[in-house]
Amino acid sequence: MADDLLVLRPDxxxxxRSPLRRGIAEPTYVLGAFNPGMTRLVNGNLLxxxxxxxxxxxxxxxxxxxxxxxxxxxxxxxxxxxxxLDMTDPRQFALRGTAHRVLALTSLSWLLPVELTPDGSAIxxxxxxxxxxxxxxxxxxxxxxxxxxxxxDRWYMTTCSVSAERHSTTLHLSDDGLHYRLAGIILDxxxxxxxxxxxxxxxHFLALTRPLGEVYFAYPGDSPFVxxxxxxxxxxxxxxxWKPLEAPGIRGRKGxxxxxxxxxxxxxxxxxxxxxxxxxxxxxxxxxGIYRTFWALFDADxxxxxxxxxxxxxxxxxxxxxxxxxxxxxxxxxxxVFSTGMIDLxxxxxxxxxxADLACRLTxxxxxVFR
Length: 371
Prior knowledge:
By secondary structure, the chain is an all-beta fold. 1% of the residues lie in helices and 46% in strands. The longest helix is centred in the last third of the chain and has 4 residues, at 320-323. It is globular.
């Protein structure tokens, strides 16, 4: 297997088996099959939990734009007047004239389990019968960006659930890594990147979180940090009830290409050096920004003690050569790579990422890069 490849592309998804067929008769297409959570199954194979963003082929109907929404009776289309919308971002559109920033999405996301060989070199099975789709009104605009952590004999998968009611973090549980059941909301605020440490510390579950808001406060002028979204720590006795920890986590630093914002990437894994995690940093550029992957190391006994942050030189960057064969499907104006899972394969790590919000990328990294 090459050190870098796209293992799943939009055209690899069979939309005839999409859950949206229960209600949406209009033609749709895969805007992106990306940001896969990754874990190892009991049988030794790997599993990618792929986010499939499915969009209408013809979203504009006269002077309205249509958006897909889940209901208990199936999927429906909502209509929004074009005259009231800002459609600058291809992933979403904003409603003008509202008291708050209000968005609607150009696609609805559901999760597709894709089983790979133990080394990740080939697809074994695509489990359409185990698709994870919205199941409640607080998920009616989709489920996004799975992260999977195996802790002892159970698999914990966090997702971002999107709705008009709330933008929350949700948890799915599994006893084999393949069959998941919804455990409900565990963070009741906008938090795109909650990652469970793959192991308990002093009997507690630990997680990285990244709460978002509309306002951030300035650091003193002589501080090395800049205000904005940052990675924090939280602890829980049962993986359901979480308390933020007071120790600061990873923050944007002046002069770094991640200064615009940072957020969690791969669930922290325990190594001989400490807890290792990959995270994303964003450089301000246009509407979306440039996303790159960096890494950090936390103390094994006290993970709130940060041993190392490598935010000067990216570990993984977007690779246009990988998406060149499907360049006609690209829709983001800036380079994006978004790492979401990492597996230890002995002398190297296998990293799963979303490439260009379009496809699933696998990257092999020698362990020597973390020394």
